[in-house]
Amino acid sequence: MREAADPRARLPRTVWALGLVSLFMDASSESIHGLLPLFLTVTLGASAATVGLIDGVGEAVASVTKMLSGTLSDRIGRRKPLVLLGYGLAAVSKPLFPLASSAVVVFLARIADRFGKGLRGAPRDALVADVTPPELRGRAFGLRQTLDTVGAIIGPLAAVALMAAFADDMRLVFWVATIPAVIAALVVWLGVKDDAAPSSGAGDTGQRFRLAELRKLPRDFWRVIAIATVFTLARFSEAFLVLKANAVGLPMALAPLVLVAMSVVYAAGSYPAGAWADRAPPRRTLIAGLACLIAADATLAAAASVAVAFAGIGLWGAHMALSQGLMGKLVADHAPPELRGSCYGVFHLTTGLATLAASVSAGLLWDKIGSDATFLAGAIFAALALVMTWRARPS
Predict the structure, then answer these.
(1) Of 78, 80, 204, 241, whose CB is crowded by the most CB atoms within 10 A?
(2) pTM
């Protein structure tokens, strides 16, 4: 029987602090990301395949780094140093975007930014799981994701306002976006408590993650990884949502509204979805999320107007709300506590490589066949993940 969460229980302050950090960093990143596909294609003359390659390689770098940082945080028994280093590197990399004169410079900036994301990702998720009682983990990951997504709303809205104020000068918008990134790093430094990880601490080689440990991980953990990987093959970069909306008539200056629309739905649904996952079998939440992704891909493939494109973008946000926090909870539920950071690293590595494959494939399909093929391919992989989830044991 599932343990019911006490509705009066409070989430730890560390969870709230990390949520605020995510808010500021996402406000920075998404104000850039909302314009970056058009900055690459219109200002720098890059192709859709290049956009997919830059985003895909960036996420793959982040995922490989998460594997290493998660393992390291288990070994040293501390999470905060890696979290702080990751957010600090992301803040330092932001000025490279307005300085970019070619797609190569954007690529390098994106790699540096995603490397920072990789350094902080697995230790941050492990820290959330460390400090939160198991019966509240769905809410904890849902709250952090909600605050993260609030930042993803603020950032693009600010970008739209700044584009109007700066006469569509994207470089000036990118300069302003560095400010919340610096604030995020300061909040980690001053506001996040470094609660001890479950491992024994620095120098405890008994907790070092080795490849042999993979065989000891529970079978249900590998089921989560398998489903998440196929799921991620259907979730290429949101840059293609921006390109689709622009292709059917959305003006360049309003392009960040794509991420706003997605993020409003995402933020509104993340915490309720986490609470639902705490009360009911998580499989139900995941199936609902996959159904929303299939509907989103089908709608975007058929979209010939801005209104229909935004309907698909809203469904995309719904699938994110139903699935992203849930995946964090499922990894925590099925990972040994002393290897929790390493297990998050495995999760992010496999899904990051899937993101690379999905984004590069999406860009090639877009250039060679058209946007319809990109979204229909995503729907096929989402349907495959739904079948895998449906057939999996309820645990």
Answers:
(1) 241
(2) 0.65
